[in-house]
Design goal:
- It is a single chain.
- The protein has a single domain (3-140), classed as Roll (Nuclear Transport Factor 2, Chain: A).
- The protein is 22% helix and 49% strand.
- The protein is globular.
- β3 and β4 (89-101) form a beta hairpin.
- A six-stranded mixed beta sheet has the order 2-1-6-5-4-3, covered by helices on one side.
- By secondary structure, it is α+β, with helices and mostly antiparallel strands.
């Protein structure tokens, strides 16, 4: 795996966070292959990935659940990539702090993603992304600017 591949994968991860926070769901789903998979938990009931969404339309629908928050902020704090067999696939683990703002409080998830990446027509995309919430914290918020 080249340095350019690693930079492209980091860019993929960072764009995912940005698109989530801006609610740019059309852009977000294009980061996945056409048959890509997103597996998410249902906090606080489950913290491990249990609900699978396959394909861009299903992923868009799942991500629209974020509309209940006044704002979100996803801070990527680590990204480890391992080359898979062949030059056009890789796996990765992304650690993140995800802030979900309601009117008077913020819910912070310490989380990680287990990713499978593939090159799709020369572009790195998510083939599969599984979200695990490692912990949940709540705290008050004194003000919030609505997300765009």
């Amino acid at each position: 795996m080249t340095v350019d591949d690693r930079l492209a994968l980091r860019d993929l991860v960072e764009h995912y966070a940005l698109h989530v926070d801006r609610r740019a769901l059309d852009d977000l789903v294009e980061l996945f292959t056409a048959d890509g998979v997103l597996v998410v938990p249902r906090p606080p009931d489950t913290l491990t990935p249990t609900h699978e969404r396959r394909g861009r339309d299903a992923i868009r629908t799942a991500m629209s659940a974020l509309d209940r928050y006044a704002a979100t902020l996803h801070a990527v704090v680590g990204h480890v990539v391992d080359a898979a067999d062949g030059a056009h696939a890789a796996t990765g683990v992304v650690t993140c702090l995800a802030h979900h703002v309601l009117e008077d409080r913020v819910i912070v998830w310490g989380l990680h993603y287990d990713d499978d990446y593939v090159q799709d027509d020369g572009v790195w995309r998510f083939a599969r992304r599984a979200l695990t919430v490692d912990w949940i914290e709540e705290r008050p918020v004194s003000g919030v600017r609505q997300c765009p």
